[in-house]
C-alpha cells in the first residue's frame, strides 16, 4: 500500500489489519475474516480461549474491581505480615494476638494475608478486641483458606493485585518474623516508599532477635557499598515493644492526616 505525502513523495506503508487498538502488519497480519463481535456471538468452538492472555486481563481487571469495591470504605488500617507456619503454641502467636488487639484499641483495622499462623493470630487479636479484622487471601496450589477470625475477606488469584490492596489500604506495615513471602512484601514496600510511589509510611520490623541480622547486613553491606542511602535505612524501625510499634504507626498517621 502506498500513500502520497504532502511534499509529493510516496510513502511506502506495509499492508496492515486492525483488531481494535492492535495493528498487525507484514507476516504478523492475521488474515481471519471474522470480526471480534462475530467471534463473541457466533463461536461454538473449544473453550481454550478462557485460558488466553487477553481473557486473563479481564480476570485481573475483575480482581482489582472486587478488591477496590470491598475495601473502599475500610477505616485507617495497618497491614501485618508474618509466617503462616507459626504454631498456636509459639510465643510469636501470642505476640500477634496482642498486636492485633493493640491496633484495634488504637482505632486501626488490621489487615493480614488471611492465612494461618501469625496472620491468624493478628486477625484473632483484632477481632476479639472488637476491631475490624481483614484478610486478603491468595490462591495457592495447596489448601489454605481464610482463617476463622477474618471479618472481611477477599481472595485473589494474582499476587500483584493482592499486593496493591495491601499498599493502597494501609497506613503502615508491621512485619512479624516470617519467610520468603514476608521478605518479598517487606522489600516491595520499602522500594515503593523509597521511590516515592506511595506516600511515606513506616515499616516496622517486630522482633529484634529475628530481624537484627538482616538489618545489620543491609547496614554493613548494602549501605556501606553505596547501594542505598542513610535515609533509606531510616525507613526501617526495629522494636520488641507493641506499644512502641503502635506509637510509630499513630505518629505517622497523624503526620499524614495533618498534611491532607
From TrEMBL:
Residues 1-46 are annotated as: Disordered. Keywords: Cytokinin biosynthesis, Hydrolase. The keyword Hydrolase applies. Residues 1-42 have a biased composition (Basic and acidic residues). Pfam families: Lysine_decarbox. It catalyses: N(6)-(dimethylallyl)adenosine 5'-phosphate + H2O = N(6)-dimethylallyladenine + D-ribose 5-phosphate; 9-ribosyl-trans-zeatin 5'-phosphate + H2O = trans-zeatin + D-ribose 5-phosphate. One of its GO terms (biological process) is cytokinin biosynthetic process. Its EC number is 3.2.2.n1. One of its GO terms (molecular function) is cytokinin riboside 5'-monophosphate phosphoribohydrolase activity. GO terms for cellular component: cytosol. Belongs to the LOG family. PANTHER family: CYTOKININ RIBOSIDE 5'-MONOPHOSPHATE PHOSPHORIBOHYDROLASE. NCBIfam families: Rossman fold protein, TIGR00730 family (TIGR00730). This is Cytokinin riboside 5'-monophosphate phosphoribohydrolase. It comes from Lentzea albidocapillata.
Amino acid at each position: 500500500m502506498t500513500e502520497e505525502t504532502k511534499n509529493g513523495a510516496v510513502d511506502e506503508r506495509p499492508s496492515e489489519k486492525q483488531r481494535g487498538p492492535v495493528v498487525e502488519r507484514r507476516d504478523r497480519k492475521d488474515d481471519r475474516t471474522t470480526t471480534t463481535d462475530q467471534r463473541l456471538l457466533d463461536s461454538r468452538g473449544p473453550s481454550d480461549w478462557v485460558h488466553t492472555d487477553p481473557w486473563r486481563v479481564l480476570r485481573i481487571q475483575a480482581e482489582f474491581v472486587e478488591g477496590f469495591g470491598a475495601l473502599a470504605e475500610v477505616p485507617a488500617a495497618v497491614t501485618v505480615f508474618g509466617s503462616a507456619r507459626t504454631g498456636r503454641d509459639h510465643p510469636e502467636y501470642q505476640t500477634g494476638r496482642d498486636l492485633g488487639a493493640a491496633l484495634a484499641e488504637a482505632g486501626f483495622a488490621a489487615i493480614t494475608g488471611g492465612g494461618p499462623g501469625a496472620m491468624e493470630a493478628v486477625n484473632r487479636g483484632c477481632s476479639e478486641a472488637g476491631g475490624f479484622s481483614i484478610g486478603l487471601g491468595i490462591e495457592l496450589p495447596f489448601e489454605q483458606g481464610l482463617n476463622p477470625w477474618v471479618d472481611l475477606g477477599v481472595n485473589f488469584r494474582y499476587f500483584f493485585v493482592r499486593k496493591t490492596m495491601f499498599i493502597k489500604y494501609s497506613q503502615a506495615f508491621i512485619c512479624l518474623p516470617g519467610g520468603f513471602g514476608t521478605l518479598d512484601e517487606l522489600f516491595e514496600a520499602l522500594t515503593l516508599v523509597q521511590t516515592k510511589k506511595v506516600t511515606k509510611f513506616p515499616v516496622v520490623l517486630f522482633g529484634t532477635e529475628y530481624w537484627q541480622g538482616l538489618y545489620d547486613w543491609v547496614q554493613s553491606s548494602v549501605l556501606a557499598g553505596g547501594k542505598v542511602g542513610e535515609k533509606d535505612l531510616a525507613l526501617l524501625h526495629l522494636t520488641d515493644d507493641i506499644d512502641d510499634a503502635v506509637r510509630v504507626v499513630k505518629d505517622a498517621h497523624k503526620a499524614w492526616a495533618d498534611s491532607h
